Amino acid sequence: MWKFHRIFGENISLENNCTTAKRSNPTKKNDCGICFTNTPLVKSKVYEIQVDELVTEWYGSLILGVTTNIPSDLTKIHLGLDLKESWILQYSGLYKNGKRIGSYSLNINTVQVGDKLGIMKVSDSTLHFYLNGIDHGKAFSNLPEVVYGVVDIYANCCQVSIINKDCESRGSTENRAVELATEAGAQVAIKKTHSFSGRPADWNVDAVCEFITSIPDCSPYAEKFRSEHIDGASLIELDKKDLKEFFDMPLGLAVKICSQLKKLEGKK
Length: 268
Prior knowledge:
Layout: E1 12-15, E2 20-23, E3 34-36, E4 46-54, E5 63-67, E6 86-90, E7 93-96, E8 99-103, E9 116-121, E10 127-131, E11 134-140, E12 148-152, E13 157-163, H1 172-183, H2 205-214, H3 222-227, H4 232-235, H5 240-246, H6 251-267
Antiparallel strand pairs: 1-2, 2-13, 3-12, 4-9, 4-13, 5-6, 5-12, 6-7, 7-8, 9-10, 10-11
């Protein structure tokens, strides 16, 4: 189940456990409504939102795309097009790093309340956009390994909600039971091809990233550790809560990292 990241534009408020994003004063200000996925995109998974509310005071609507990094400070970034290392669809225009590079078959300026928009990073590292379940084809190619989804609630669009199809058949009780079972001490399977020398506290940033990558399902988060300059001394100060809240990491993965790190520290 994905949510909106806790870093978002100054005009945004998140509701419903970070699955609904709403722009404040939508008839008076049309920007500063950027939101991100809370985790990097998983290949071949459609990340879908529904348009909940529109106003009529502005021209324009949602802006969608991906970026390699989520800025910690958005005060000077008012639109998704302002993001560095980004691949963005606005109206029917395709923009890379803020510069228009072509046109697309879908014009998202025409969306109505109830419409569903989606993005998917395909296994061949291309980016596709969806409208009401229909794939409109390849928009961008050669995406980096780690990208986050961008949802810019701009102009006429003032509220969207996440659709988590993969979780519709699961109850919250079942999900919590899985989390608790994982936290209770499930064994961590580390890839045999990796080895780490010295004390974890002495690792440099590269060693930390190698450690994170070696843990199953954690490799998409390695670049976040690199961008935040997390070395071994910093890593050992982080706990499960830090990993969940700052890195927006699922509880199960946070448990795996902390458990394996504790084992390695005990061996030194």
